[in-house]
Amino acid sequence: MTTLFIKNMVCNRCIMVVQNELAKFSLDLKGIRLGEVILDEEPTVDDKTKLEKALIALGFELIDDKKSRVIEQIKNIIIDLVHHHNNDAKANLSDVLSSQLHHDYNYLSNLFSEVEGTTIEKYFIAQKIEKVKELLVYDELSLSEIAFRLNYSSVAYLSNQFKKVTGLTPSYFKQIREDKRKPLDKV
Q1: What is the C-alpha separation between 18 and 52, in angstroms, rounded?
Q2: Which residue, among 125, 65, 64, 55, has the nearest Cα to 93 in the 3D structure?
Q3: Fewer CB within 10 Å of terminal CB in the chain, N or C?
Q4: What does the record list as coiled-coil region(s) (predicted)?
Q5: pLDDT of amino acid 187
Q6: Could you give the CA distance from residue 139 to residue 177 in angstroms, rounded to a whole number?
Q7: pLDDT of 128-138, one tens digit each?
Q8: Distance CA 129, CA 135 (A)
Q9: CA distance from start to end of the chain
Q10: What confidence tens digit (pLDDT) does each residue in 127-180 have?
Q11: All structural domains of the chain
Q12: DSSP characters over 85-102
């Protein structure tokens, strides 16, 4: 068995697209998840080159070097935690990353900052703010419910962080999003 690491896989739709692309190459797929594809055997150099070109056309990229793989794994864990598990884990992010990647958090943090030019914490906050935006647009939860779901200590803390990142308050963001929407009878 061999594992291919793929950059920019961030959602279930990405998994489906990559899976469909792999099927075109008749590669024996054993498993797939965000950022990783497990194949029964190593693809030929020709198949790998063709697959890489096809993936690039779809916005993905095969990752060969170890540092890039670790960075992509960090991103995928954070994305999965925030967007797919409603940030259920009450555990500290550093503990989650260290235990899942089997590396000291200081190593992961330094590597991420060196390669990405930002900290793991800032990336995590950016993902949480994107989730807040999504939940505000859906208009199904109150701000206090969103704060609770994403493990913010208070609505005030969420609002301050949201404004710091976006320049807007959550209520103003929601208002300008609603102003752009037309009622169904006006479409």
Answers
A1: 11
A2: 125
A3: C
A4: none
A5: 44
A6: 11
A7: 999 999 899 88
A8: 10
A9: 53
A10: 999 999 989 988 788 899 999 988 898 999 999 999 999 999 998 888 887 665
A11: 1-64 (3.30.70.100), 67-181 (1.10.10.60)
A12: STT---S-HHHHHHHHHT
Residue 67 tokens read as 């540092």
For residue 154, give every residue at least 6 positions away whose Cβ sits within 8 Å of its Cβ, in sequence order, or none.
147
| Contact status, residue 76 vs residue 15, Cβ threshold 8 Å | no
Residue indicated by tokens 């800032």: 122
Q: Are 84 and 130 in contact (CB under 8 A)?
A: no
Query: How many C-beta atoms surround the C-beta of residue 41 within 10 A?
Result: 10
* Residue 120 half-sphere exposure toward CB, CA atoms < 13 A: 24
The full DSSP string for 123-150 is HHHHHHHHHHHHHHHHT-S-HHHHHHHT
Q: Write the burial class of residue 130 (CB in 10 Å: 0-12 exposed, 13-18 middle, 19+ buried).
A: middle
